[in-house]
């Protein structure tokens, strides 16, 4: 059975607190979702000149898989559709589909819309007919359907009947308040699907069950689902595309994205980056921790048979397995990473070779000094490179000076922020370059200066972004203590983590930043070599 996916990240997703997309970001999201293979992309609602300009920019946008949709509401009580500014704007939008919502709960009709049940049905019918006459495919969202069905099944069903008879191609049952359980969603959907074709489902996550409710609706016969990337949306969000689609396709055999599901992880990170929010690494299926193993028994098991501790293959959704090196994992994780390293580089070495044993000893020695490779695979890979004599010097630090400028008075009683600047001198292939950077702290300033110095030699540096920075004190010598700095970096597709250890937090930060830059350069250079 084919399941249609309508992604509403750019509409309902943007209604979530802290979520905002620029016009350029929206175009990137549309491109990413179209390449992923969703059926519909709800691009937003025309409410002002800015949103009208954005929709006008879609006139020349060509999609291969998805149909673009504009979102709107029915006309107001006593109003004709041709007099509704919102309906006229939607009708004139240069996209083929209009999604329109209307009330399906008598309580909402009388207490919120303040009109009669009959007038509400007229609004639905006339609004859909108007958009249809203007050449749009119309998808009707039956708002508060499940609460309405509980209150008056006959009236809720009459809303569905009115929408279909007016020409809607799909009628979507909305759990607008997100307050219904999956079994209720399933039972109601089954009753509706037995009478009507082309039923969709739109669930909110106010009880943490939007994904489960969506799956329940599909099992009951719904063939059209509304989702958002990472569950972005109003209040607690919407059903999460990243969770729902793998469950339906990989676990239950429904047709959703086909082979394009392998692009799911990349798409999820791209959209989160466009939304300018931190990606949740604990997200099922697509998160960085989704296939990360730490316990020794788990690592041993997954090395012998992946399905022992993995529900699906990580690659099926474009993700990857990660084995953490820690006291809980023992040496098996290190050996596994070492074997992967040797296999990837075809060095003709085995784990019993003296060079490999030397690398393992180097890792052990660094761990004794406070380096924790548990979740710093990038630094671990570079450490192995170093121990085997394969680490390339992409740049050399010739000088670094950091200046911190206190704001306000010396004691800064006003708690005004400090600013910092960094001057850095590096050498690349014998060419020296001196540059400076300014930031809201010394690490930020060093990061800015290093990027400016390197980007002219390695353009890939422009694509990366530092997403997390952590400092941990390793002993109890107060300000003289050794510290471990951990940095997380992303290029919008993958994430890597690096570490540095020193009694000087600036030095430790430099080590982690250096490794982060080296890792992406190394990765890019290896890809060029493969080509």
Short description:
The chain is of the alpha/beta class and 531 residues long.
Tell me the number of helical segments per DSSP (H or I, 4 or more residues long).
17
The biggest sheet amounts to: 8 strands, parallel, barrel
- Specify the CATH homologous superfamily of the domain at 4-275: Aldolase class I
User: Segments where pLDDT lies below 50 for 5+ residues?
Assistant: none
The amount of beta strand, in percent, is: 15-25%
Summed over residues and divided by their number, the pLDDT gives a mean of: 89
Report how far apart the termini are: 40 Å
Per the CATH scheme, the topology name of the domain at 4-275 is TIM Barrel
What is the level-2 CATH architecture name of the domain at 4-275? Alpha-Beta Barrel
* CATH top level assignment of the domain at 4-275: Alpha Beta
Describe this structure as you would to a colleague.
Helix content is 39%, strand content 20%. The chain is an alpha/beta fold and 531 residues long. Among the domains are: 272 residues, TIM Barrel (Alpha-Beta Barrel), CATH 3.20.20; 96 residues, no CATH class. An 8-stranded parallel beta barrel has the order 1-2-3-4-5-6-7-8, surrounded by 7 helices. Helix 8 links the parallel strand 6 and strand 7.
Record the SSE blueprint:
Layout: E1 4-7, H1 23-36, E2 40-45, H2 49-57, E3 67-73, H3 85-92, E4 97-103, H4 106-111, H5 117-133, E5 137-143, H6 145-151, H7 153-166, E6 170-175, H8 182-193, E7 199-203, H9 210-219, E8 224-227, H10 241-251, H11 264-275, E9 292-293, H12 296-304, E10 322-323, H13 332-345, H14 354-368, H15 377-387, E11 396-405, E12 419-428, E13 431-439, H16 442-454, E14 465-473, E15 483-490, E16 495-502, H17 505-530
Helix pairs in contact: 1-11, 5-7, 6-7, 8-9, 9-10, 14-15, 15-17, 16-17
């Amino acid at each position: 059975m084919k399941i249609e996916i309508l992604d509403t990240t750019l509409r309902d997703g943007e209604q979530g607190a802290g979520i905002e997309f620029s016009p350029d970001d929206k175009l990137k999201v549309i491109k990413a979702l179209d390449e992923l293979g969703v059926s519909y992309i709800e691009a937003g609602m025309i409410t002002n000149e800015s949103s009208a300009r954005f929709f006008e920019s879609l006139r020349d946008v060509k999609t291969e898989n998805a149909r673009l949709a504009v979102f709107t509401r029915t006309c107001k009580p006593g109003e004709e559709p041709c007099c509704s500014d919102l309906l006229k704007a939607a009708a004139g939008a240069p996209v083929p589909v209009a999604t329109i919502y209307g009330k399906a709960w008598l309580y909402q009709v009388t207490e919120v819309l303040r009109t009669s049940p009959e007038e509400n049905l007229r609004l639905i019918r006339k609004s859909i007919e108007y958009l249809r006459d203007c050449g749009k495919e119309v998808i009707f969202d039956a708002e508060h359907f499940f609460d309405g069905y509980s209150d008056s099944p006959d009236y809720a069903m009459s809303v569905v009947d009115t929408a279909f008879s007016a020409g809607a191609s799909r009628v979507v049952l909305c759990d607008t308040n997100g307050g219904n359980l999956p079994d209720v969603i399933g039972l109601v959907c089954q009753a509706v699907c037995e009478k009507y074709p082309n039923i969709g489902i739109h669930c909110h996550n106010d009880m943490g069950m939007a994904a489960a409710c969506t799956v329940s609706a599909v099992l009951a016969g719904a063939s059209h689902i509304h989702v958002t990337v990472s569950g972005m949306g109003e209040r607690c969000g919407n059903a999460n595309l990243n969770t729902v689609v793998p469950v339906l396709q990989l676990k239950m055999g429904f047709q959703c994205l086909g082979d394009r599901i392998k692009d799911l992880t990349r798409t999820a990170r791209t959209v989160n980056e466009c939304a300018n929010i931190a990606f949740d690494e604990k997200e099922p299926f697509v998160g960085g921790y989704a296939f990360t193993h730490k316990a020794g028994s788990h690592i041993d098991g997954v090395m012998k048979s992946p399905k022992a501790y993995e529900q699906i293959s990580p690659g099926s959704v474009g993700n990857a397995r990660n084995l953490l090196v820690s006291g809980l994992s023992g040496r098996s994780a290190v050996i596994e990473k070492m074997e992967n390293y040797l296999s990837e580089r075809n060095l003709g070495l085995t784990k019993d070779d003296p060079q490999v044993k030397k690398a393992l000893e180097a890792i052990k020695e660094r761990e004794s000094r406070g380096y924790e490779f548990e979740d710093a695979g990038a630094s671990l890979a570079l450490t192995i490179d170093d121990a085997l004599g394969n680490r390339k010097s992409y740049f050399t630090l010739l000088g670094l000076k950091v200046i911190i400028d206190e704001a306000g008075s010396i004691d800064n009683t006003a708690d005004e922020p400090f600013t910092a600047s960094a001057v850095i001198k590096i050498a690349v292939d014998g060419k020296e370059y001196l540059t400076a950077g300014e930031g809201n702290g010394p690490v930020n300033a060093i990061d800015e200066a290093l990027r400016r110095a390197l980007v002219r030699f390695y353009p890939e540096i422009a694509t990366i972004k530092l997403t997390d920075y952590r400092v941990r004190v390793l002993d109890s010598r107060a300000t003289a203590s050794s510290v471990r700095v951990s940095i997380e970096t992303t290029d919008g597709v993958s994430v890597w983590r690096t570490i540095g250890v020193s009694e000087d937090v600036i030095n430790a930060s430099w080590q982690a930043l250096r490794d982060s830059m080296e890792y992406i350069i190394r990765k890019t250079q290896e890809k060029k070599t493969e080509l």
